[in-house]
Amino acid sequence: MLKYSLQRIVYMVIVFMIITCMCFVLIRMLPPAQLPAGDPHTIVIEARREAAGYNKPYMVQFGIFLKDIVTDFNWGVSDKLFFGQDVVKLFSQRMPATVIVNLYSVLFSIPLGIAFGIFAALKKNTWVDYTISTLTMVVISVPNFVYAFIIQYVFSYKLGWLPFLMKSGTDWFSPAMFVSMIPAIMSLGFGTVAAFTRTTRAELTEVLTSEFMLLARTKGLTKAQATVRHALRNCFVVVVPAIIGEFVSILGGSLIIEKIFSIPGVGRLTIDAINAQDYPIFMLTTCFYTAIGLVANLVVDISYGFIDPRIRMGSKK
Fold first, then answer.
1. Domains in the chain, start-ordered, CATH in brackets?
2. How far apart are CA 284 and CA 78, in angstroms?
3. Strands of 113-271, DSSP E
4. pLDDT for 36
5. Is this model's pTM higher than 0.90 or not?
């Protein structure tokens, strides 16, 4: 397991560097954002661009980019969106909103998804199973931003129970802030609930029909005891790693949701940076999402070996 983990880390770094280099070159091939004439910050931005090697070959620019990050953790300053402000500072200010909204969404969706999946598996081939399975497929097929508009129309416009947009400020754990997050949490959570319902139902159904479950019942265990002690344990070998993967997918999907509900998070910052052609911000957020995805995949693969000791990743036998 240690050897496999080290190999995966090396591959992960290589993939990260390749993706970063590709994004960097493609971005630098585009013309930089136009600087306002007469603004005192313009001279500073132009000097930073000169130091970053904007007039040099792309690979030389990439080398300077990496050197600034490794030596000074310097990702540059905003060219246009937040003119002259440090990119890392802007990113760190937006991170709490993204983390909190997505954390609430995970805490809301995972227990519901697992519960519905278990219920559907225990009621296999009944109208309950058919209903849950049909609704699951419908919910998975619809993008989460569609749910955002439906929630805004029903709960914010028609009923007036929830606000249209997230409350401004940094009181992240206040009741008013939580209420303003509910539409975004629901929008992000519907798809995740459906995904976990489908995964749990499929895995548990397969386990319940296994031979070792029949053996457990013949030894005197009730259906409930056999399900809790044996079936769920084997089912979670797939479900638990999926929790990490779903968190990453929610984080990526929040790009549009943050824009719709005016959430001051990293996703909205990325969309605004693209629209404003603010490439230093875009590079930082792109590297962030790439790193999160690669690390999560590594953790998912390694977690299989800890959840079920019979699994040995990278083994030749």
1. 91-265 (1.10.3720.10)
2. 11
3. none
4. 67
5. no
